[in-house]
Specification:
Strands 1, 2, 3, 4, 5, 6 and 7 form a 7-stranded antiparallel β-sheet that branches. Helices cover 37% and strands 16% of the residues. The N terminus is likely disordered. By secondary structure, it is α+β, with helices and mostly antiparallel strands. The chain has 6 helices and 7 strands.
Length: 255
């Protein structure tokens, strides 16, 4: 994740200009946005402000809150050509900030992964005892929501499915239902838990899988959405096993 590149230093800092608590509401007048140029100018400022707001929030979460008064002063002075820090020095300063933030992010990710591992082990132990839950030799847990007698895919097949993926707390991180479009993919090019689990299904069936982290995205996870060591749950509906196209015929059959 990149933060505050040199070319963005001045423009990124403008977002905090509206945060001055000493300015009373009644003293603020609405901007004049009658012409396209006025709207463009304001839109640029608003875009910069939103960008900087996200950065400041992320920095605060990492324990690196920056002094807003210095941010505002740096912006105002640099836009007038009076920066207290030479342009040549800013690259090194911001590279240092970027390195510090990356180190903090890695530290937090490691803590989160350790916590996820412990939570996942506990959840799997308790979930396996629930009625209707079956466990494969590899450790995948599943419940048959809708049974069917259709064909079952092989690992080398391409399948069409509808699915919803959630964390153990129920938060959804991915869903073909939300996109209103089934997913199509070769079964041997997804996480191992899917490759194994979907082969248990018949066309027309719907299963709920609880997949251990080592059969999902492992200790690294799938940043930024899925933390390391995450046990994941999927509701999967197998719609179709796609048949390979017939090979093109060569020559005349009559020959």
């Amino acid at each position: 994740m990149k933060f505050l590149k040199p070319t963005l230093v001045a423009i990124a800092l403008v977002s905090v200009l509206g945060c001055q608590e000493e300015v009373k509401v009644e003293e603020v007048t609405a901007p004049v946005l009658e012409t396209e140029a006025q709207q463009q100018a304001y839109g640029l400022g608003a875009s910069i402000g939103m960008y900087m707001e996200r950065n400041l929030e992320e920095q605060t979460k990492l324990g690196l809150a920056l002094d807003k008064e210095l941010i505002k002063r740096g912006f105002l002075e640099s836009i007038e050509g009076n920066s207290a820090i030479a342009k040549e020095e800013i690259q090194g300063i911001l590279s240092g900030l970027d390195a510090t933030m990356k180190a903090k992010q890695q530290e937090q990710a490691a803590v989160a992964a350790e916590s996820s591992l412990a939570d996942g082990v506990k959840f799997l132990e308790e979930n396996a005892k629930k009625e209707g839950v079956k466990v494969t030799e590899s450790g995948i847990q599943y419940v048959v929501l809708t049974d069917a007698e259709g064909a079952k895919p092989k690992a080398t097949d391409t399948v069409t499915v509808h699915y919803k993926g959630t964390f153990l707390n129920g938060e959804e991180f991915d869903s073909s239902y939300s996109r209103n479009e089934p997913a199509v993919f070769p079964l041997n090019r997804v996480i191992a838990g899917w490759t194994e689990g979907v082969q248990l299904m018949s066309v027309g069936s719907k299963y709920k899988f609880t997949i251990p982290s080592d059969l999902a995205y492992g200790p690294v996870g799938n940043p930024p959405r899925i933390p390391g060591n995450s046990v994941l749950e999927f509701e999967i509906e197998l719609l179709e096993i796609q048949q390979p196209a017939a090979p093109a015929e060569v020559g005349d059959k009559s020959e």
